[in-house]
Amino acid sequence: MHALDVLGDPVRRRILELIADGEAPAGDVGRVIQAEFGISQPAVSQHLRVLRESGFVTVRPDGARRLYAVDPAPLAQADAWFDTFRSFWQPKLDALGTELARGRLAQRKATDAEREQNDPSPNGGPTAPVDPPRP
């Protein structure tokens, strides 16, 4: 099965998201998937089997539990396949990044100007003249 066939299923993508940060017991994964997608435990097990057989996840026994973890190799293969098409969207993403950075800079400048307008002294102290001490 091609990596994109495996990743094309939203349940399998969600399973990968759930275990992306580290190992998770099959039972925990199953409970989340059943709640979110309304599918049975055997259906979740089938999705885990597809992920395991296609190499996207590894599984190891831990007593009575089975712990699942992401294997990054198939994801790297999918990423390599996307390289062919990355040129279609990468310039747009780069431009978006530039515009977001410009917006953050403009916001920072506006905030600094507002702060300066409200407190023009360089050390943030009082700006009104202070009465001299009385003898």
UniProtKB/TrEMBL annotation:
Gene3D superfamilies, alphabetically?
Winged helix-like DNA-binding domain superfamily/Winged helix DNA-binding domain
What CDD domains would the database entry show? HTH_ARSR (cd00090)
**Any one GO MF annotation of this record:** DNA-binding transcription factor activity
The yes or no answer to whether the keyword Transcription regulation is present is yes
**Where along the chain is composition biased (Basic and acidic residues)?**
109-118
Read off the NCBIfam families from this record. HTH_metalloreg
Q: What is this protein called?
A: Transcriptional regulator, ArsR family
Which organism is this protein's natural source?
Agromyces cerinus subsp. cerinus
